[in-house]
Design brief:
Strand order of the largest sheet of chain B: 6-7-8-3-9-10-12-11
Number of helices of chain A: 12
Oligomer: heterodimer
Number of helices of chain B: 13
Distance between the termini of chain B: 38 Å
Radius of gyration of chain B: 21 Å
Strand content of chain B: 15-25%
Structural class of chain A: alpha/beta
Structural class of chain B: alpha/beta
Amino acid sequence: MPSQSNQAVAETLIAIRDLKVHFNLGGNRVVKAVDGVTLDIYQGETLGLVGESGCGKSTLGRAVLRLTEPTSGQVLYRNKDLAQLSGRQLREQRRHLQIIFQDPYASLNPRMTVGQIVGEPLDTFRLARGREAEARVQELLETVGLSKRFIKRYPHEFSGGQRQRIGIARALAVDPDFIVADEPISALDVSIQAQIMNLLKKLRREKNLTYLFISHDLRAIRHVSDRVAVMYLGRLVEIADAKTIYVEPLMPYTKALISAVPVPDPEIEATRQRIMLEGDVPSPINPPSGCPFHTRCPYAIDVCKEVVPQLVEIKPAHFAACIRISPEVPHIEDVPPGSAPGLESHRG
Amino acid sequence: MILLEVRDLRTYFETDDGLVKAVDGISFQLQHGETLGIVGESGSGKSVTNLSIIRLVPDPPGKIVSGEVLFKGEDILSLPPDAVRRIRGRRIAMIFQDPMTSLNPFMKISKQLMEMTQLHLGHTRSQAYEHAVRMLETVGIPDARARAGSYPHEFSGGMRQRVMIAMALSCEPELLIADEPTTALDVTIQAQILELIKKLKQETGTSVILITHDLGVVAGMTDHVIVMYAGKIFEQAKTKELFALPGNPYTKGLLRSVPDPTAEQGKLYQIPGLPPDVAHLKPGCPFADRCERAEDICRREFPPFVALTPDHHSLCHFANEVYAESIQSSRS
């Protein structure tokens, strides 16, 4: 796999350190949307961030770009701490960091033409003006597979997939290094999803981009990502390369998540054993004590209610946050009932 | 035994942009106890098909211009409105994508469930209440008796969809139409709801029409599938047959453009272009502009609905060839 050989030499582009985003709802109620996330995103990779609604994945994506102000922690971009930058410095750095949004209907100004939308960042960052800017906009439209004749048209004249292309062109206008793609295909039809995924992959190759690809769609995540991070109630619970996490997930939550994905093959579906989770995702306002997953986990034991599990490298480059497994006993099926081999490392 | 037979159904919408033929001459049958999947992308007409069957097409701008919907031999389209109301909810029940918009936010869950059986089955208040609690238990609402007095906003999305299912099944309908029932839900909750529908179907023998854009859901849930595109049925077959041996280029393209989480994949196949504007369809096949094997005839003449086997049909000038290729590649 090319991603792994890349990883050996890859440098960290974005380093997230103990990042927290808490929202105060008043009356002592706090939503810990992101609660202590530490994560490296390597130059040139696509890191897939997957989780169910309310797990904090979009908030994490926004906090990395400081579109949402973090409560604490650090985000280092090429070793510069974004959280420490002043408004002007931050703006300068932001040029390198862009975002593509989920809803192509809400993220484009309906009163601006496509040319104005895609050209605005060129103006904001004083990258090009007049003729030069126009030529650049045309080039950007062609890069994302839109005709340059569209330049004078308005967003409402386009379909969802085309609008998402406009959003991508706008993000590319400033020649970024890093793009947060926040559910970029969720609002699109199946045939259009494939087009946008292929476009994002092509652009990454051609422009040497790095993506944080956020999605609840495990099929899409598997397809576009080199590595995958799984998030649950504000915390990362497992990280591994994309293939490993699908073939050999370690966390009970990841196992359930992957087994829940419908496979487009009736023969497989007919014989498949699903791990059914009981109940709903708990409210992030009042998350469970200890391991946030213990209320739904088929393997939970009493101590899981007390100890907050940390991400541990269970296998090479494969991290999981579960006290019931350890590098010596990586598979929970092999763990004797009631024992928690990973507990040592958490107490020590 | 045939439970539902749709014959040459056409539902058109009068819009500023012209006449939209949302559903344009579709026919299919649903056998008793079966699950039929209807797949398609947005604008393909799959939801309008469902609304037409239960006569809920907003009129104006919509109008069912022709066809028959035979429910146990009785044409729903020619029944008087009050007869339709007696069927809807009682014998044909529906669940929709967004349970929040289908539940009354000002009414207790118990009351909403009770209305169903009081109206359709003539239950007394106390009978209806007990039945409501039993239904909530059946669909897996924990602590059902206590939660029955709650309002919809006090439930999560998954729980609300369970309530919708409880409501839909409370009069033991013969047919359940589920229109994207899990699209708004998380994947672990989706798995729960689909499992619940399967289980209840087995227990009650209800037939199901499942409308979805998700081929994975179709693969796991249905006996037969209809693939819709631009208001037409492009392909229909038994589910296993359709996935193994697709006989239509559109179906083939759709199947190839879904990433398979169990397989290693390079570049994902993509169907080029955009779905057509159904208000301004050109002559010929509506998929021709996006089809990699289209020839002149496809842009000139509307394709025939070819019977590949007695229960496998495809709308394509080259249906036999496409089918033969599928057979070929399944052997290699």
